[in-house]
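User: Predict the complex with iron/sulfur cluster.
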Amino acid sequence: MAGHAEVKLVSNAMANTTRRKIMNLLLEMDLSKEDIGKAVGQSMLDYHLQILQQAGLIKIENNVASLTDFGRNFLESKGEKSERIEIRDARPVEVVEVKQLLPCIADTTKFRIIARMDPPLGGALKALEPLFPRGRYSERIGALIIQKGTVLITLYGTGNVTMTMIRDEAHAREILEELKRTINDAIEKGVTPAPKEKVRVDPMEVYRYLPGTNCRECGEQSCYSFAIRLVSGEVGLEKCKPLQEDKYATRLEHLRSLLAYL
Ligand code: SF4
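Assistant: Here is the predicted structure with iron/sulfur cluster placed in the model:
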């Protein structure tokens, strides 16, 4: 990719807004052609993807597009990573599916749900962070994590949404509709509030989701001491062996999301 012709192919590929948006979406995660179309529009999508492929910036296998090593290096060297999708470029979302209602192990009277919002918001999710008083975008998992009372909502750039501690399906739909309204209002206005200070994670909140047996397998005196060390980043969740058991799977997932705030 060093010759004059190749350089021209790359600069031509990156000269177009839609193609730059596609590249930035793929920087967050691999996506199907369908999902890319939902995020950037179907107009000339095959053509844009072909231009990016010809420039060696992306590859498409089994209908899923991903950045090539060259494409990733190119974006990083150009600092394109900061050119995320702006909120004004995002399209209004719809709740298209509430996929599963599983018992929530943290509280068996509550449910855990998996839903989907379309089109996927990709990197624009980061711009939505200030809309939620207890919201935090995690680069690591490519998701916006929102705490609303005891409910923890994880909205992924792919459009998938998981929620824990839900009363019933009506409760889930109510939360999803409210989320949709907040997001679509911001998209319509094209602005979000200024970024706010980081949310503090309280060790007591973390403690509530640990097994609570004080078995000391982690080397700490109690689950609460372990929670303090987790919040300060000195230890990881893997140190609590009981937590890795199947029966604590939902708690573990909830804790992972909670600790992504840190
Ligand atoms: S290993 Fe887990 S359950 Fe046991 S004391 Fe440590 S945090 Fe609590």
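Residues 210-211, 213-218, 220, 223, 226, 240-243 surround iron/sulfur cluster (CB under 6 Å).
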